[in-house]
Amino acid sequence: MDHRRLRPHVGGVPDGQRPGGGCLRQEAGLRRRDRGIHDLVPHGGVRPLPPGLDRRPRDPGRRRRDTYPEGAKRNKAFGVVVAVLSAGFAAGSLLGGVLTEALGWRSVMFVNVPIGTFAAYLASRHIAADHRRASELRLDVPGAIAITTGLILLVYALTNAANEGFFTLSTVVPLGLSAVAQTGFLGIERRSASPLMPLSFVRRRTVLTANVLSILMTASAGAFLLLTVYMQGTLRFSALETGLAFLPPAAIFFFVGGWGASRLVNRVGMQRALLASAGLITLGSVLLVPLSAETGYLGILPGTVVWAFGASIGFPSLAIAGLQGTKPGEEGLASGLIQTSQRLGFPIGLALLLTVASAFDPALGVVGFRYAFIGASMLGAVGFGLAVLLGRERSPHGTERGSHGRSVGEEEG
């Protein structure tokens, strides 16, 4: 692996700690908004495609080669990344509960700061610098400012809508400004010599469908934050007990997402894997609808387990779908779009589901949670319909590609 390509991630690590640090001095309402912005702003981690899985020349004058060419090898590599992320999620669920019980919720926000600082230190010591000239690197600064501003305003407006209603100044004004900013972004991208998001690329059916599906899938995950509130507020779980409750879904992500999903995609194809994922996400959300004040952990477990099976299949499959048929040099862009879609989906989904819950139950009780899970199941159902669109397609190379995400006749290797 060419470690020079990892350099951009070093600067992104400290950026990822700032929102967490900002949460240390905020009350609950502002803290939720800051965490939403943390999930949205593309700080450093612009793409979920790990360095080494994308295809870049080591030197501008050298012939391009594939570290992980499209197909079974890349699918397997995505699975390994999901396994590592799942291990982090499991550790965070458990340790977050321990820290909250022992030191209070602010410690959960603070722990990211030393971890990120240490990661940046290790990266600066062991990752070689990229010596490309600054003149070779172009950044669409106006486009980045426009789209980031537009999305932050959108999430802010939806958050206000959940608390104060849609037809209030605090909701309507940010929504209008968000529309202006995002319209301006489209205009900037049409005129930019080096656009952040080339519109011709986004208009490809596979790219567009995969990113919309990614938004829907991560939006449905917002229900699980509400499930945390339900467990602690209604069932009176402690922070540690809540963290332990999420260990089974985390284990499913580790094993199924890490090793099972890539094998499933290689065996049955990307489209069928995504259909299975969307179906299981929908079913898992439906199983959580009958929650009541008397529901115990065993009543929650089936829904969370089924949902986790669906999501652990879906996230690697979407990463594969987002890169399907990309031209040489487009892999980073395609992966960055999937990452942005995921960062956009969760805060928007959470805000929408909070709005639904508050509309039916202003006190945000059991009735509100039920309607939120109905909303999450509807998101999964729409995702199922979109997955149907991801059928056979021709790649930009003119090669027919099947739902496996690789050229017809390519060896799995």
Notes on the protein architecture:
The structure is a single chain. This protein is mostly helical. It has a domain of 237 residues: MFS general substrate transporter like domains (Growth Hormone, Chain: A, Up-down Bundle), CATH 1.20.1250. 69% of the residues lie in helices and 1% in strands. A two-stranded antiparallel ribbon has the order 1-2. Helix 3 crosses helix 14. The N terminus and C terminus are likely disordered.
Explain briefly what this protein structure is:
This protein has 413 residues and is mainly α. It is built from 16 helices and two strands.
Summarize this structure as a short list of keywords or feature phrases.
16 helices; Growth Hormone, Chain: A; 1% strand; disordered N terminus; two-stranded antiparallel sheet; 69% helix; 413 residues; disordered C terminus; mainly alpha
Q: Largest sheet, order of strands side by side?
A: 1-2
Total E-strand runs: 2
CATH class annotation of the domain at 67-102 and 201-401 = Mainly Alpha
User: How many DSSP H or I helices?
Assistant: 16
| Secondary-structure element string | HHHHHHHHHHHHHHHHEE
Low-pLDDT ranges: 1-65, 392-413
Note the topology:
Layout: H1 7-22, H2 28-40, H3 72-103, H4 106-110, H5 112-126, H6 141-164, H7 169-191, H8 199-202, H9 205-220, H10 222-233, H11 239-245, H12 247-268, H13 270-287, H14 297-322, H15 331-360, H16 366-388, E1 393-394, E2 400-401
Antiparallel strand pairs: 1-2
Helix pairs in contact: 1-2, 1-5, 2-6, 2-15, 3-11, 3-12, 3-14, 6-7, 6-15, 9-14, 9-15, 9-16, 10-15, 10-16, 12-13, 12-14, 13-14, 13-16, 15-16
